[in-house]
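Structure first, sequence second, as always.
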């Protein structure tokens, strides 16, 4: 969950710039915050795609924006989702063994479980791994969820956070200019 909100100083500055039209301040801030939320969602999505090999559709499905209103001047980006099957990332499964690449600059790593048990492609094109020497039980292989990827301070959110604040200031300036010109 990522919140985009204003501070009291920003509201005072907007009211000062609007002068006699200071009743328009909540509308200006609402529009600027909503525009920033849309930009932030795009930036987060692009940064996840830069860092991880996850398919774009899964990232888009996981993000939802609760928009700001005139009475509630903050927008929230919700990132929800379960742990993904490893096949949502870059994988290779020739006849023997399987490999997966989760992080872009990592490279394909061979999947080997405890006691040297390798993974294999099976039902529904998923990658599976046996739990022991016996034929069953087998388990589908899972990897990183989208919320976990977005929340990564070092790789994703920490990189995008300063950009979000910069975009908010720029969008407030643009919205103020729109109202003043009318």
């Amino acid at each position: 969950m990522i919140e985009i909100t204003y501070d009291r100083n920003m509201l005072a500055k907007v009211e000062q710039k609007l002068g006699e039209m200071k009743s328009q301040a909540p509308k200006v801030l609402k529009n600027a915050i909503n525009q920033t939320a849309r930009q932030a969602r795009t930036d987060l999505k692009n940064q996840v795609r830069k860092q991880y090999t996850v398919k774009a559709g899964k990232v888009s499905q996981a993000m939802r924006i609760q928009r700001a209103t005139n009475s509630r001047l903050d927008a929230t980006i919700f990132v929800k989702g379960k742990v993904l099957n490893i096949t949502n990332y870059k994988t290779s499964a020739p006849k023997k063994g399987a490999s997966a690449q989760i992080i872009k600059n990592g490279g394909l790593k061979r999947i080997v479980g405890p006691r040297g048990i390798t993974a294999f492609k099976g039902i529904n094109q998923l990658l599976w791994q046996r739990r022991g020497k016996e034929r069953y039980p087998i388990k589908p292989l899972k990897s990183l969820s989208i919320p976990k990827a977005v929340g990564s301070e070092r790789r994703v959110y920490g990189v995008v956070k300063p950009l979000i604040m910069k975009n908010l200031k720029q969008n407030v300036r643009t919205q103020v200019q729109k109202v003043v010109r009318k």
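Margin note: The mean pLDDT is 90.
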